[in-house]
Amino acid sequence: MRKHIVAGNWKMNNNLSETQSLITDLKNQNKTSDAEVMIAPSFTNLWHANESLRTTEIEVVAQNMHFSESGAYTGEVSPEMLKSLGITTVILGHSERRAYYNETDESLARKVDAALKHDMRVIFCFGEELSDRKANNQEAVVESQIKNALFHLEADAFKNIVLAYEPVWAIGTGETASPEQAQEMHAFIRKTLEDKYGSETAENVSILYGGSVKPNNAEEIFSKPDVDGGLIGGASLKAEDFYAIVNAF
Ligand code: PGA
Question: Which of 4, 157, 9, 177 is nearest to 97 (CA)?
Fold first, then answer.
């Protein structure tokens, strides 16, 4: 059975003391749902966050990593560096990294391989731009993003892959895909997986929705059968809001 997951992507927010205080607030929240909870602070706060949350239900995950083991890549962080802190999950392919740091399907395929090689779990993000949706091209775009970065993998690898559909036009804009639009795309994604890997693999992969999920719309989005959770940006920066979303399952 696939899992429900709610992951908070803090992006480039929160210095050390802000991280400490948000973590204190998170520890005071009550989880009433069956969702796995994750937060993704910036690299500089991963160690502290992971130490502070070690004995809790919250998993600390990374927002990105390099595909190489080590070497002359100024400013980058390797899988082994993350593993040495106890971080075993990484978000890859967020649309902001694709747009601002030129991440391509090809480089993302290498990152996915590196993560899996290090026994890490991947939250793989993808989604169409507004122009794609306006041209009714969203399914072709999403299909090619998934195929190019993931379809070289064996079915077994999908035990360690979580998918996150994030339409670019809905991220940080206050504009959410309607629950029906999310369900339609998630069902398409699952069908795409099924066509390649069979129904068992497809049924077991969690597919998260991301893009302006808030306490007031989470329940309706999460009620859709192919929506298995959320990747939450802005609303993950306040513990009460984040847990209202976690508890929307
Ligand atoms: P948002 O961000 O919830 O602020 O729209 C989602 C994301 O980028 O993961």
Answer: 9
Task: Say if ligand 1 is within 6 A of residue 172 CB.
Answer: yes
Strands of 121-224, DSSP E: 121-126, 161-165, 207-210
Six-digit token pair at 204?
């077991």
Q: For the whole model, what pTM was predicted?
A: 0.97
Per-residue tens of pLDDT for the chain, all 249 residues: 899 999 999 999 999 999 999 999 999 999 999 999 999 999 999 999 999 999 999 999 999 999 999 999 999 999 999 999 999 999 999 999 999 999 999 999 999 999 999 999 999 999 999 999 999 999 999 999 999 999 999 999 999 999 999 999 988 887 888 999 999 999 999 999 999 999 999 999 999 999 999 999 999 999 999 999 999 999 999 999 999 999 999
The amino acid present at 226, given as its one-letter code, is: D
- Tell me whether residue 166 is one of the annotated catalytic residues: yes
Instruction: Tell me which residue has its CA closest to atom 3 in ligand 1.
Output: 233
Contact indicator for 90, 76 with CB cutoff of 8 Å: no
What residue owns the CA closest to ligand 1's atom 1? 233
Query: For tokens 């966050």, what's the residue?
Result: 49
Q: Which of 171, 216, 237, 245 to mutate to test the pocket of ligand 1 (most atoms within 8 A of CB)?
A: 171
